[in-house]
Amino acid sequence: MIATITHARVRASQGDLAGALRVLQGVLTMAPGDAEALRLRDELRRALPDDRRRRARSMRAWIERVRSRRGAAR
Questions:
Q1: Domain extents for the chain?
Q2: pTM across the whole model
Q3: Cα–Cα distance for residue pair 71/61, rounded to 1 Å
Q4: What sign for the dihedral angle of Cα 49, 52, 58, 63?
Q5: 17-65: per-residue pLDDT in tens?
Q6: Cβ neighbours of residue 4 closer than 8 Å, sequence gap 6 or more
């Protein structure tokens, strides 16, 4: 994988914040002091908890829909 800041931004724009952070780790391995990569990493880290909460809410809603459908089918 070629790790670039652009690649990380693309992943982030697609909603893959964890993937974007992995790409940025590759960038920072090669260039530990890259200011843009560090700035983006910090920005994504701050956004990650919100993304995880959103995904958890979405998963709980899906589970409830499945449960209600199963109850209706019985």
A1: 5-73
A2: 0.67
A3: 15
A4: negative
A5: 889 999 999 999 999 999 999 999 999 998 877 777 788 788 888 889 9
A6: 23, 27
